[in-house]
Design a protein that fits this description.
With 434 residues, this protein is mostly beta strands. It has 2 domains: 83-222, Beta Barrel (Cathepsin D, subunit A, domain 1), CATH 2.40.70.10; 255-427, Acid Proteases (Cathepsin D, subunit A, domain 1), CATH 2.40.70. Helices cover 11% and strands 37% of the residues. It contains 6 helices and 29 strands. It has helices spanning 51-69, 213-219, 313-321, 360-363, 399-402, 423-426, and strands spanning 30-32, 37-39, 42-44, 80-87, 92-99, 104-111, 117-120, 143-153, 156-169, 172-185, 194-199, 227-232, 244-252, 260-268, 277-279, 282-285, 288-289, 299-302, 309-311, 327-328, 337-340, 347-350, 355-358, 364-367, 372-375, 377-379, 395-397, 406-410, 415-421. The strands form 4 sheets. The protein has a 16-stranded mixed β-sheet that branches. It has a 5-stranded mixed β-sheet with strand order 15-18-27-19-26.
């Protein structure tokens, strides 16, 4: 089962492995706040990267994905809005939540590819520079479960202990949410002002075995409608980008009709809920339909915590075969492809319904020289799980795709929906945008 795999996480892909078998209590009662509470999401602009910097980042991203995919009823139903921040030129998108009594706010990456909540603890001794910490003594409701947890990420590790406390977001709260408080973090895993990660996949992926924050809200009827949704901004192709830029919108309990147009096309997820897994049925590149693997090799995890799109070798080869002048990358760029920068690459993907287009700006990851660019699709090598005989998903579809659609993750029936972005949503892209 995919649930036997370690959980996917942030824009630097994230794997989780428990330190032994852990049994934890289920989250307690849920309460709902005022409808329409808003928390802004911010986008952080990237530092100037050299070609070598990009190569090292790309190598870590590919290795990370290979590893990663290698209570009471609420008083009333409600809705919540969290405005996102775009970090490091569309590398990740984060928002805020609050933990404890009194509540303390933390910035966390929103990740539909993992299921655990992780925050840095005040006892952190490594990899925690210049980020906000969880201080156990400051919360009158925090409980230390004294159960160790170790999380392995593609780009690093985190270790700590399981805690339990009130967690709030956008006016909605869970009283006894279990989460990981990290006291050891690999260098570069969390970058200021981000202090952690909020997993938005299903409980079967949770290394803590705890019910995820979102799933407790959805299953208890805390939301007006059993959905959460994303609209993500694009700054990858912009100049003079600031360190933080508006990242779009995350909603709980409803969909924001001002951010999309037409109908939301829902597709039921594949298999037992774990990842948000869809079957990729077709793809066109430069207007031509390419051959794709079928069966389980067509399964795609829809992952807001992943920057790019990873897929099987044969499919990635077929994509770049349609682009004259493209070539396989070497060295740190192994698994990626280069192509002429003056070529506008148009890719569209279908999951059994409409075909969704990816902007040429999103297809271009970075420029290596005056003429050669690197594509945002790369070869994802899946390996057998250590605890099962099954492979991870053959495709991981991240923000390269999701910036081009309004995406909805539905609790019941378990499904993912996409819709065309509205003019209002598209106007939020780029410097000095609406």
């Amino acid at each position: 089962m995919l649930s036997a795999w370690l959980a996917l996480a942030s824009a630097t892909t994230l794997l989780s492995t428990p330190h032994g078998c852990i049994a934890v209590p289920n989250p307690g009662p849920v309460s709902a706040g005022q409808p329409g509470q808003t928390i802004p999401l911010t986008r952080r602009a990237p530092p100037v990267r050299t070609v070598d910097d990009w190569a090292a980042w790309a190598q870590r991203e590919r290795e990370f994905l290979t590893l990663r995919y290698g209570g009471d009823s609420p008083q009333r139903r409600s809705e919540g809005v969290n405005l996102l921040t775009n970090q490091d030129a569309d590398s990740s998108f984060y928002g805020s939540l609050a933990i404890g009594t009194p509540p303390v706010v933390f910035n966390v990456i929103f990740d539909t590819g993992s299921a655990d909540l992780l925050v840095a603890d005040t006892t952190c001794t490594s990899g925690c520079s210049k980020i906000a910490f969880l201080e156990a003594a400051s919360s009158s409701t925090l409980k230390n479960l004294s159960q160790p947890i170790q999380i392995q990420y593609g780009s690093g590790q985190a270790a700590g202990y399981l805690m339990q406390d009130v967690v709030q977001m956008a006016g909605l709260s869970v009283k006894n949410q279990v989460f990981a408080a990290a006291d050891q973090i690999s260098s570069g895993l969390l970058t200021s002002p981000v202090s952690g990660l909020l997993g938005l996949a299903w409980q079967t992926l949770a290394l803590s075995e705890a019910t995820p924050f979102w799933q407790t809200l959805a299953s208890s009827g805390a939301w007006t409608d059993p959905v959460m949704s994303f609209q993500l901004t694009r700054f990858l192709n912009a100049t003079n980008v600031k360190y933080n830029e508006p990242g779009g919108t995350f909603t709980m309990g409803f969909v924001n009709s001002s951010l999309y147009t037409g109908q939301i096309d829902y597709r039921n997820i594949t298999g037992t809920p774990s990842y948000w897994l869809l079957t990729m049925t077709s793809m066109t590149v430069q207007g031509k339909t390419i051959a794709l693997p079928t069966g389980s090799s067509a399964y795609a995890a829809i992952d807001t915590g992943t920057t790019l799109v990873g897929g099987p070798l044969s499919a990635i080869q077929n994509i770049f075969a349609q682009i004259p002048g493209s070539a396989p990358g070497t060295g740190s760029w192994e698994g990626y492809y280069t192509y002429p920068c003056d070529t506008a690459v148009n890719v569209a993907i279908s999951f059994g319904g409409p075909s969704w287009s990816i902007s040429p700006a999103d297809f271009q990851l970075t420029q290596l020289s005056s003429s050669q660019c690197v594509g945002a699709f790369f070869v994802l090598s899946t390996v057998l799980s250590a605890t099962s005989n099954e492979n991870g998903p053959s495709w991981v579809v991240g923000d390269t795709f999701l910036k081009n659609v309004y995406s909805v993750f539905r609790y019941s029936p378990p499904s993912v929906g996409f819709a065309q972005l509205s003019e209002a949503a598209l106007a939020m892209n780029g410097v000095a945008s609406a």
